[in-house]
Specification:
Length: 262
């Protein structure tokens, strides 16, 4: 919980620091910088498999434990110079839910089993890109590191027990990622960008896709209104004591933001 917020705050401070130092280079014409605060109105799917807990069974699966985000905040920042560039992307989510099961799981749990879920996730991407043509649009090869911090608490209360069985993950997972991004104009003031990437290392596998459309306005197209869709799927495997916990996190939904170039 606190670690997620500290990671997010530290990353924001890093982006602001780089942005301030980069602004001087931008004045000299060395770099073109872009700051994009955005909102990702994501739906959430959370599937959890608990293996080896004697109180709830040898192998119990819980699917779709949450379906909405309670709080989210996102920020993207990147710079380009010639054929190369760098970028940071920050996302923070909080979500929670509770559900009383009528059986379910493998093997099935008793009717009336209460499952309460609280989770806080933060994602930090630090990466670079290579654009062979070196122009303002075109194909980018993406590469970098993605840090995923997961603070997950699942309380499972069986009908015959007063105290819940608690499954807890509070850890960071560091992946290396590679991907492609293509951007181009659509008419005079419109443009689009499509991105796809995969990562692994700390997670079992993570894949991410983004499709954006933008409308430029202001002097020399300094500002752009952005809207589109993003989907991310994350597969995790972690141990909580002697219990193995496998978690699949799915985030998908519309995305909107404001691009500011300087």
């Amino acid at each position: 919980m606190k670690d997620s917020r500290r990671l997010f705050a530290a990353a924001v401070a890093l982006v602001i620091g780089v942005g301030l130092s980069g602004a001087e280079a931008a004045v000299a014409g060395d770099w073109e910088w872009t700051l994009i605060p955005y909102v990702w109105a994501s739906d959430v799917s959370l599937d959890v498999n608990v293996d080896g807990d004697p109180l709830i069974g040898e192998d119990v699966s819980f699917s779709d434990l949450v379906d909405k985000v309670d709080f989210a905040s996102q920020l993207h920042f990147e710079g380009q110079r010639g054929k190369g560039g760098l970028f940071f992307d920050l996302s923070y989510f909080e979500f929670s839910d509770s559900e009383t099961l009528t059986g379910g799981g493998i093997p099935p749990l008793l009717d009336g089993t209460l499952v309460e879920t609280k989770e806080k996730d933060s994602f930090l991407e630090v990466g670079g890109f290579y654009r062979p043509k070196g122009s303002s649009h075109g194909l980018d090869v993406l590469f970098g590191v993605r840090i995923i911090n997961v603070d997950q608490k699942i309380d499972i209360t069986l009908p015959f027990l007063v105290d819940p069985t608690r499954v807890r993950i509070d850890d960071s997972f560091t992946d290396g990622f590679v991907g492609l991004r293509y951007s181009g104009p659509i008419g005079e003031n419109w443009g689009f960008s499509a991105r796809g990437d995969v990562s692994a290392g700390g997670t079992e596998l993570t894949w991410n896709t983004v499709l954006l459309f933008g409308y430029q306005f202001g002097q020399t197209g300094k500002y752009s209104l952005l809207f589109g869709y993003r989907q991310m799927e994350i597969e995790l495997e972690e141990n909580d004591g002697d219990v193995k916990v496998e978690t699949d996190i799915g985030l998908s939904g519309p995305i909107a933001g404001l691009s500011i170039k300087f």
